[in-house]
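Lecture notes, continued. The same structure-token format from the folding unit now serves as the input rather than the output. Read the line below as a description of shape only.
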């Protein structure tokens, strides 16, 4: 019995390590199992030979840059023709003139109207003086010379039907000398000369008025602009900007410059037209005097008889 117990005890001691090994194996982590990579090539398939790479010629110069068209950049426009350039210039000038009128205020509009009237008067006056022969005095002079030679019919034929102011006065004087006494002929000649000289001076009063009031309108616009500028400066108070005052002043001075720009050509044209009419008056007086002096001896001879 004792032997059996000892044998059983020995068997327990021998089997205990074997029973503890599986439990330890379960508690310890399992060793990693090597896996075959999926990307590894299969052994059965032979590798294809790689294609030979093409050798590119080596160059030290950089490759030329290829321009990439930009969607926002417009292609260059075609060159403008002469008519298109003139039209563009006219549009730019009109835009500048309109801005000038807006900046100048109400006075500048009145001055602009005066400038149009002045230009129309000057052109009309030049045409009118040319029509009445202001720069032509050949026919009247030849008629006076013919009368001084005693050829009254030829003298009257030279100036008859002419529209020049000198020719008309000479024709009226010849007709009056032939039909009226000397004193009445002088009065008739003076009447006709005054009538035509007055007609030649038409429009000069308007030019004189424009030359006088255009600078005054400019000064009025400047004063009004200065008042508005200082009112704006006062309204700004402590936040006043000197640029605001400077802008109001230069805008106000535009009217003064515009008024002078209208008055100077008007005054110059007025002086020129007055000089032309004064020369016409001198020529008429000279021709009339020569006619009456040439007719006096015959009348004296008749009185002596």
């Amino acid at each position: 019995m004792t032997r059996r117990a000892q044998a059983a005890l020995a068997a327990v001691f021998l089997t205990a390590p074997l029973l503890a090994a599986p439990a330890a194996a379960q508690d310890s982590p399992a060793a990693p199992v090597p896996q075959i990579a999926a990307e590894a090539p299969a052994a059965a398939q032979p590798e294809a030979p790689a294609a030979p790479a093409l050798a590119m010629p080596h160059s030290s110069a950089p490759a030329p840059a290829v321009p990439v068209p930009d969607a926002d950049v417009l292609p260059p426009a075609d060159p403008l023709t002469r008519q298109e350039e003139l039209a563009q210039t006219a549009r730019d000038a009109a835009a500048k003139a309109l801005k000038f009128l807006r900046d100048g205020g109400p006075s500048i509009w009145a001055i602009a109207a005066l400038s149009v009237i002045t230009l129309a008067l000057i052109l009309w006056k030049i045409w009118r003086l040319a029509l009445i022969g202001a720069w032509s005095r050949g026919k009247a002079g030849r008629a006076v010379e013919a009368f001084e030679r005693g050829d009254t019919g030829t003298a009257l034929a030279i100036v008859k039907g002419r529209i020049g102011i000198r020719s008309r006065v000479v024709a009226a004087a010849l007709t009056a000398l032939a039909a009226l006494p000397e004193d009445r002929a002088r009065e008739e000649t003076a009447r006709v000369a005054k009538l035509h000289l007055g007609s030649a001076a038409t429009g000069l009063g308007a030019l004189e008025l424009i030359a006088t009031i255009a600078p005054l309108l400019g000064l009025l616009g400047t004063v009004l602009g200065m008042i508005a500028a200082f009112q704006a400066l006062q309204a700004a108070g402590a936040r006043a900007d000197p640029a605001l005052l400077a802008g109001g002043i230069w805008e106000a001075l535009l009217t003064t410059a515009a008024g002078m720009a209208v008055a100077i050509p008007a005054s110059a044209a007025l002086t020129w037209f007055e000089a032309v009419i004064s020369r016409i008056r001198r020529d008429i007086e000279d021709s009339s005097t020569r006619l009456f002096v040439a007719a006096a001896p015959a009348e004296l001879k008749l009185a002596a008889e």
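Point for the exam: Residues 19-61, 298-305 have pLDDT under 50 and may be disordered.
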